[in-house]
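Anyone up for a design puzzle?
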């Protein structure tokens, strides 16, 4: 029997699982393996220095943007897909570690055993699965068409200057996600538009900044001087590439 979590709880409507000591150790082995043996695509900004801020800066040169957010990303990924992705990457104990890395789904819809939020290896495993999905073919098509694509875990942003091309890519990504059994969140879909809010930041041609709502939310609670300095530096970083 795989006793791979200690307890579970909900935060902001999301189910979180606390891994057991054995599961955490195996999770670190997966992370170490990925660090050694896996080259994640450049468009995976959760694995690039600067993360979503660098991704935002990459979109600044373009006029139009669209956004696709994957609904219940981790919980959409089955144990079998985890095992297949690990095996494809050359991991020697794929099926065993897939069992240690999955939990009985807290949702009625979707795979019975799936990837949880809360395990340290979940982002890496989700990325391995996404790398093997039809979505990556559309990423390649987008880049060949001159569009810019950034993926940060469950958020995909694509930008460009040709509305017809972007609309075609938007449709193509929706089809690819459906083929990958990764359902976009209908409430967060944004078709091609000239201004976008993403990562609590405003984004348009040549301009990015932290939204006033996010700033107000931050200052709604008492903050230390060190925290305020750090937040101010982050806000400045978001806007430093503006033209």
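Challenge accepted. My sequence:
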């Amino acid at each position: 029997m795989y006793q791979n979590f200690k307890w579970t709880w909900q935060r902001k409507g999301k189910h979180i699982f606390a891994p057991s000591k054995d599961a955490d150790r195996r999770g670190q082995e997966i992370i170490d393996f990925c660090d050694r043996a896996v080259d994640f695509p450049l468009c995976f900004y959760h694995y690039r220095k600067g993360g979503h801020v660098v991704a935002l800066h990459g979109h600044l040169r373009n006029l139009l943007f669209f956004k696709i957010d994957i609904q219940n990303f981790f919980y959409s990924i089955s144990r079998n897909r985890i095992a297949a992705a690990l095996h494809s990457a050359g991991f020697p104990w794929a099926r065993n570690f897939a069992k240690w890395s999955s939990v009985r789904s807290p949702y009625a819809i979707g795979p019975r055993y799936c990837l949880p939020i809360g395990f340290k290896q979940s982002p890496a495993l989700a990325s391995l699965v996404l790398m093997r999905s039809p979505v990556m073919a559309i990423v390649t098509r987008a880049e060949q068409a001159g569009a810019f694509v950034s993926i940060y875990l469950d958020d995909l942003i694509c930008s460009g200057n040709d509305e017809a091309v972007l609309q075609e890519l938007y449709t193509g990504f929706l089809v690819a996600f459906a083929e990958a059994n990764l359902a976009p969140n209908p409430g967060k879909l944004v078709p091609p538009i000239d201004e976008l809010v993403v990562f609590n930041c405003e984004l348009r041609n040549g301009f990015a900044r932290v939204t006033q709502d996010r700033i107000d939310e931050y200052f709604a609670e008492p903050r230390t001087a060190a925290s305020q300095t750090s937040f101010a530096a982050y806000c400045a970083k978001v806007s430093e590439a503006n033209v």
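A detail worth pointing out: The longest helix spans residues 21-37.
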